[in-house]
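Run log, item B.
One chain of 231 residues. Sequence copied directly from the ordering sheet:
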Amino acid sequence: MPSSLDYCIWIICTLLEACVVVCALKTGSFRRYVFLNVYMVLSFLGSVGRYQILSHYGMGSREYAYFYFYSDALLTIAQYFAILNLYCLVFDEMKVERHLRLGAILVLGGTAWFSCAVVQQSSHRILTHFAYELSQNLYFVGLVLTYALWGAILKLRETRTRLIQMVLVLGVYFSAFAAYYALQNLYPNVILLRYTPPLLACVLRAAWAYSFLRVSEEERLAPARLAAVPR
């Protein structure tokens, strides 16, 4: 069963997810960052649902395992579309939203097909294995897309402060997760590492809430403060 610290971090993360959506609504930014906010709403509902399943059936139950893996896959897909939302905002002046959406659907479909092909090689072929494989593959895709988006921001010399902060925080989040997975493989018995993912999730949500609440959509960074990248 989760410890008191686990529940504390869980509650804080859930409240921060609600805070992100509230801050977006308060500043009139919900529609502009609609997929990002949908991701936060689904994450909030997923946290509440996991607690309900956990309290009724226990962590070792089949019900909790299925709910956990499928909700995790759904949240990873939602996070993928949140990244797409940021892509559309960065490239909005180029009017390429339709191409980005088509490309995103193709990448999502290709990732799902690849995950299914990997699972078919397994002797178990259980659905939870597919959900886990899809989440891991989409996480890697999200990592690559976030770094590519940051490169595009530098190349285009984007100056919208809020948008830059949103992408930068997401890049730090993915980088820290990559470091976590590396350390987890090297030191699998270190108990403190298990608190890393929920703490990183808290930091991401807190940073997004701050960006919505304290940074206006019109605020701009001076171009000199971004890395100089020749065109």
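Observations after the first pass:
- The domain at 11-225 is CATH 1.20.1070 (Rhopdopsin 7-helix transmembrane proteins).
- The two ends are 55 Å apart (CA to CA).
Flagged for discussion on Thursday.
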